[in-house]
Amino acid sequence: MNYRHAFHAGNFADVFKHALLARLLVYLTRKDAPFRVIDTHAGEGAYDLAAEEAERTLEWRGGVGRLADMSEASDQTRALLAPYLDCVGPFGEDGRPFVYPGSPAIAARLMRAQDRAIFCELRPDAHEALRYRFGRDERIKTIHIDGYTGLGAYVPPKERRGLVLIDPPFERTDEFEAMFSAFRSAYRKWPTGIYALWHPSKDPYAERNFNDAFGKNDIKRALRLSLAVAKGGEGLRRTGLVVINPPFVFEEEARDILAFLAPRLAQGEGADFEIEWLTGE
Ligand code: SAM
Asked: Quick check: is 137 catalytic?
């Protein structure tokens, strides 16, 4: 377990994932009934972008740093991104947010008093940071556990509505298969939950098998979204999210957000986005 998210916090893949995550959470708050968030690979919770790790890569500059000035966005895009940008908080003069919120900080901020969350993290130091940050929040449990084991143990939640985020580090070569298998077992126990499965796009063959698996396994409503910041080139250039049981407004909202983010986060020719139904609609 070498992966540490602190090196990548606030990069284009985080902006993509977290802006969409915030829309899913906002949707859940539209009914009074409580919901549950399960974050299987939670990370540290939030990240200091002035820390050595972020300073070394400066990945945030190609991501959240490009959202410091939203004056050219339409009113609608600004409104759709507002919940995410509220979680990010103020930007410094160099376009750097003081602290970058990870998925747990975004969930914690958008949840209400009646909602609950379980944040799983296997790396001891990352879990310790998570516990330190959220240990006094009575709505939240942080658990030092393998995220796939945790998912199997905590679904279905008693609230019967909510969201699972599966955001693994992709250090293992079979991560796509492991993620799908854990998702499929959870889906069988809780077919009405919203699930968001994040992945990097580096291995087209593994990604195609992953996308095909939803249809082959009778998963009813799976929406695939992806964002490319350039065509080809070194390092991560494309990333994706498959959302199962997305709220009905989500596709349209995501289209607006990604049409804004693709040119704004571009790192070269070919920046673009895709949205397609893998199954259902
Ligand atoms: N979801 C976080 C966010 O959006 O802010 C980022 C998560 S980061 C991509 C992946 C995290 O998974 C790392 O913190 C890593 O330590 C953790 N991790 C690695 N293997 C794990 C496992 N088997 N179970 C749970 N967490 C794991």
From this structure: no
Q: Is the CB of 167 under 6 A from ligand 1?
A: yes
Enumerate the domain spans of the chain: 5-279
Sign of the dihedral defined by the CA atoms of residues 236, 42, 274, 173, in that order: positive
H helices of the chain, in order, are 12-28, 52-57, 75-88, 103-110, 124-134, 147-154, 175-189, 204-216, 250-264
Instruction: Return the best residue to mutate from 2, 4, 5 for the ligand 1 pocket (most ligand atoms within 8 A of CB).
Output: 5
**Most informative mutation of 122, 151, 236 for ligand 1 (most atoms within 8 A of CB):** 122
CA 66 / ligand 1 centre spacing (Å) = 25
- Rounded CA-CA distance 116/181 in Å is 25
Q: Which CATH superfamily is domain 5-279 in?
A: Vaccinia Virus protein VP39 (3.40.50.150)
pTM above 0.85, yes or no: yes
The closest of 17, 94, 45 to 257, measured between CA atoms, is 17
- Which residue type occupies 165? L
- The pLDDT tens digits for 85-139 are 999 999 999 999 999 999 999 999 999 999 999 999 999 999 999 999 999 999 9
